[in-house]
Amino acid sequence: MTIMRKRTAAGLTGLAALTALALPLYGDWSSEATTPQPAATEVTRPVPTAVVTRDTPWVTRDFPGSVRANRRVELAFDLDGLLVELDAREGHAVAAGTVLARLDDRDARNALSAAQARFDDARRTLDRARELRGQRMVSESEYDKARAALDIAQAELQAREKAVTDTVLRAPFDGVVAARHLENHERVTAGQAVLSLQDGSRIEVVIQVPERLIAQGGLEALHNPRVRFDVEGRRWFAARTHEYRLQPDQATRTYDLTIALAPPPGINILPGMNATVRTDIDQPPVATGAPTEVITRVPSEAVWRDADGACHVWVVPEAGGTPRRVRVEPGPLRDGQMLILSGLRPGQRVAVAGLRALREDLPVRPRLAGKRGLEG
């Protein structure tokens, strides 16, 4: 029994010593495990933004149009006849006065010869009547009849001379033969179109303008028109407003507006080609509370309303940071953008998406173009 108690006491003594040696090691491990870790850095979220711009007193619009020559004419004879000469070729330039077509003039010249004979006879009759009147051998009424007969003969002679002249069709101005409607040796009637002649020294582009724009000032509201042709598609050419029709199209309620310009260098522009006309159009003024307030523009999706109905935007710092809620006074919509009558300055950035998730204590930054997610 004595030996057993000694062994037990010795075991307890060894266990106590082992426990004492292990306590420092255990205490160090427990302390390291309970040390508080530093808080994770809050992520700066990228948000889509847009730059606030100053409102302009005009808006730029593009209109599709069609090219036409500034002078166009359908050439026809004033009398019936048989075509004996038609040498004008389509697409060829002709000078003013050039003979384009002729009719058989034999009948016209025969009629002219007969009229010339009647005129000569009437003139001789009047000369005799004048001589006899001086001798009091004819009455005044007979003399007046002779004079009237000469006047009639002279009028007929002039008509026959014009008929001979009308058998020849000449170009009234420098231009290009746009179309030939008949062929040689065909019989034509008076007024029937033979050729189409167009003057290409200047070009006209016809566009359709809504009646609302015409009502807001007409041609005076359109400024700085320029034209781009679809066949070239890169350059804009300066032009000017020329005229517009007072009669609208009954179906579309638009007015034809004509834009004129010189032929552009390096491009062969022909009537019928497509073009685009860009012009600045005056906008009606918008009244503000303060005369010095700058009217700005933002995308309509940047503006949101609170529970009280007040309009706000989130202004995002250019270099990033916490956004700022700014109350604004909205104006009318123009081309998908909302006018802001007060509250913003040109150059500021406003959020255009995720507006309900933004807070004034949540750091954000403008999203980079073409990026997605947190990389933006």
Characterization of this structure:
The chain is an alpha+beta fold. Among the domains are: 96 residues, conserved putative lor/sdh protein from methanococcus maripaludis s2 fold (Beta Barrel), CATH 2.40.420; 62 residues, Helix Hairpins, CATH 1.10.287; 82 residues, Beta Barrel (Elongation Factor Tu (Ef-tu), domain 3), CATH 2.40.30. Helix content is 24%, strand content 36%. The chain contains four helices and 24 strands. Strands 4, 6, 9, 11, 12, 13, 14, 15 and 16 form a nine-stranded antiparallel β-sheet that branches. Helix 2 packs antiparallel against helix 3. The longest helix is centred in the first third of the chain and has 32 residues. The protein is elongated, with a radius of gyration of 47 Å. 19% of the residues are buried.
